[in-house]
Design goal:
Length: 177
Amino acid sequence: MSETLTLARPYARAAFEAARDGNALAAWSASLGFAAQAVADARVGALIGNPRLSGDELVGLLLPPGEAASGTFANFLSLLADNRRLALLPDIAALFEELKRESERVLKVTLRSAAEIPAQQADAIKTALARRFGRSIELDQRIDPAVIGGAVIDAGDVVIDGSVRGRLARLEQTLAN
């Protein structure tokens, strides 16, 4: 596990609990996404260690438009600034999204195929996966020419390899033994 994820995990949990307690998961998700995207920008990222900027000024840069500078999210950003952890915002946001999906019983699934899967077929795959895992499915389709044909479904701990490349690898292994 990377060190940044280890440092980000308690902050992500704290953010998640604050959002859940305030019944504001969607709002926190959007705000964290905005702040994480801002920090990922090289120009803003370079300002994080700048001694000329105060913590309040940095927090002001990272607040989404219309967000109150005295709200719970602003206080969270101030805590990060005080602890010199603003650079962790992309990891905090990613971990927060995992916790949010888990609480909402949503499973993020990546579907890799050599060509675009038609919407009707993708919906059928989502329905089958929802039945199998007993959760709502968030499907992320990716084009991967290395798959050759078929598809690879990555659902976290479960990988379903129905690709031509996977079948060829299994055939090669069988023939080698």
